[in-house]
Specification:
alpha+beta, 56% helix, extended
Protein backbone atom coordinates (compact mmCIF):
# COMPACT_ATOMS: atom_id res chain seq x y z
CA UNK A 1 0.00 0.00 0.00
CA UNK A 2 2.84 2.39 0.77
CA UNK A 3 4.43 1.87 -2.65
CA UNK A 4 1.11 2.52 -4.36
CA UNK A 5 0.61 5.58 -2.15
CA UNK A 6 3.92 6.96 -3.39
CA UNK A 7 3.01 6.39 -7.03
CA UNK A 8 -0.43 7.96 -6.66
CA UNK A 9 1.05 10.93 -4.79
CA UNK A 10 3.58 11.52 -7.58
CA UNK A 11 0.75 11.44 -10.10
CA UNK A 12 -1.20 13.89 -7.91
CA UNK A 13 -4.12 11.45 -7.76
CA UNK A 14 -6.44 10.89 -4.81
CA UNK A 15 -5.52 7.86 -2.73
CA UNK A 16 -8.77 5.93 -2.70
CA UNK A 17 -9.34 2.24 -2.14
CA UNK A 18 -10.37 1.83 -5.77
CA UNK A 19 -7.15 3.57 -6.91
CA UNK A 20 -5.01 1.38 -4.61
CA UNK A 21 -6.78 -1.84 -5.55
CA UNK A 22 -5.02 -2.59 -8.88
CA UNK A 23 -1.58 -1.85 -7.39
CA UNK A 24 -2.10 -3.99 -4.30
CA UNK A 25 -3.68 -6.86 -6.24
CA UNK A 26 -0.87 -6.88 -8.82
CA UNK A 27 1.80 -6.79 -6.10
CA UNK A 28 0.28 -9.44 -3.84
CA UNK A 29 -1.62 -11.57 -6.40
CA UNK A 30 -4.56 -11.49 -4.01
CA UNK A 31 -7.90 -9.73 -3.92
CA UNK A 32 -7.94 -6.36 -2.12
CA UNK A 33 -11.16 -5.05 -0.57
CA UNK A 34 -12.35 -2.42 1.87
CA UNK A 35 -12.37 -4.93 4.72
CA UNK A 36 -8.60 -5.32 4.30
CA UNK A 37 -8.22 -1.57 4.84
CA UNK A 38 -10.46 -1.88 7.89
CA UNK A 39 -8.20 -4.62 9.30
CA UNK A 40 -5.13 -2.43 8.82
CA UNK A 41 -6.91 0.51 10.46
CA UNK A 42 -7.89 -1.70 13.42
CA UNK A 43 -4.31 -2.90 13.92
CA UNK A 44 -2.63 0.46 13.32
CA UNK A 45 -5.19 3.26 13.80
CA UNK A 46 -2.75 6.15 13.51
CA UNK A 47 -1.34 4.97 10.16
CA UNK A 48 -3.94 6.90 8.20
CA UNK A 49 -7.26 8.63 8.41
CA UNK A 50 -10.15 8.03 6.05
CA UNK A 51 -13.31 9.64 4.83
CA UNK A 52 -15.97 8.99 2.24
CA UNK A 53 -15.98 11.37 -0.71
CA UNK A 54 -17.97 11.71 -3.92
CA UNK A 55 -15.97 11.57 -7.14
CA UNK A 56 -16.97 11.56 -10.81
CA UNK A 57 -17.91 8.06 -11.89
CA UNK A 58 -15.74 6.35 -14.49
CA UNK A 59 -18.56 3.96 -15.38
CA UNK A 60 -21.47 6.40 -15.61
CA UNK A 61 -20.33 9.80 -16.96
CA UNK A 62 -22.09 12.74 -15.38
CA UNK A 63 -22.74 10.97 -12.08
CA UNK A 64 -20.90 10.81 -8.79
CA UNK A 65 -19.88 7.70 -6.87
CA UNK A 66 -18.88 7.23 -3.26
CA UNK A 67 -15.18 6.49 -2.66
CA UNK A 68 -13.16 5.79 0.48
CA UNK A 69 -10.33 8.34 0.61
CA UNK A 70 -7.24 7.45 2.64
CA UNK A 71 -5.10 10.23 4.10
CA UNK A 72 -1.62 9.21 5.14
CA UNK A 73 -0.58 12.74 6.10
CA UNK A 74 -1.25 12.34 9.84
CA UNK A 75 2.08 10.84 10.94
CA UNK A 76 3.93 10.46 7.64
CA UNK A 77 4.06 14.21 7.06
CA UNK A 78 5.66 14.89 10.41
CA UNK A 79 8.14 12.05 9.98
CA UNK A 80 8.96 12.69 6.33
CA UNK A 81 10.59 16.07 6.45
CA UNK A 82 11.18 19.38 8.07
CA UNK A 83 9.29 22.63 7.76
CA UNK A 84 7.03 23.25 4.82
CA UNK A 85 9.19 21.85 2.04
CA UNK A 86 8.53 18.66 0.16
CA UNK A 87 10.08 15.52 1.55
CA UNK A 88 13.06 14.17 -0.35
CA UNK A 89 12.78 10.70 -1.88
CA UNK A 90 15.26 9.42 0.71
CA UNK A 91 13.25 10.74 3.64
CA UNK A 92 10.04 9.32 2.11
CA UNK A 93 11.70 5.88 1.87
CA UNK A 94 12.83 6.13 5.50
CA UNK A 95 9.31 7.19 6.50
CA UNK A 96 7.84 4.24 4.59
CA UNK A 97 10.32 1.88 6.25
CA UNK A 98 9.34 3.18 9.69
CA UNK A 99 5.65 2.76 8.83
CA UNK A 100 6.23 -0.80 7.57
CA UNK A 101 8.19 -1.86 10.64
CA UNK A 102 5.62 -0.29 13.00
CA UNK A 103 2.81 -2.09 11.20
CA UNK A 104 4.74 -5.40 11.21
CA UNK A 105 5.28 -5.04 14.95
CA UNK A 106 1.55 -4.44 15.48
CA UNK A 107 0.62 -7.49 13.40
CA UNK A 108 3.11 -9.67 15.29
CA UNK A 109 1.80 -8.39 18.63
CA UNK A 110 -1.79 -9.11 17.55
CA UNK A 111 -0.87 -12.61 16.32
CA UNK A 112 0.97 -13.46 19.56
CA UNK A 113 -1.93 -12.18 21.66
CA UNK A 114 -4.48 -14.25 19.73
CA UNK A 115 -2.26 -17.33 20.07
CA UNK A 116 -2.01 -16.83 23.85
CA UNK A 117 -5.77 -16.30 24.10
CA UNK A 118 -6.47 -19.44 22.05
CA UNK A 119 -4.08 -21.47 24.22
CA UNK A 120 -5.68 -20.14 27.41
CA UNK A 121 -9.14 -20.89 26.06
CA UNK A 122 -8.13 -24.43 25.11
CA UNK A 123 -6.65 -24.94 28.58
CA UNK A 124 -9.80 -23.58 30.22
CA UNK A 125 -11.92 -25.98 28.16
CA UNK A 126 -10.21 -28.93 29.85
CA UNK A 127 -7.09 -29.26 27.78
CA UNK A 128 -7.62 -33.00 27.54
CA UNK A 129 -7.68 -33.19 23.79
CA UNK A 130 -6.34 -36.11 21.82
CA UNK A 131 -2.92 -34.50 21.69
CA UNK A 132 -1.38 -33.90 18.30
CA UNK A 133 -1.65 -35.51 15.04
Amino acid sequence: MLTARGMLTQRKELITVSALKPFVEAYTSRRFAVHHVQHIKALYPEAFSWQHIRTPSTRLPGTLELQLLLRFDCKAASMAGSGGGAASPGSRRRSDAVERSAFAARVLEYWERTQREAAAEAEADGGSGSGGG
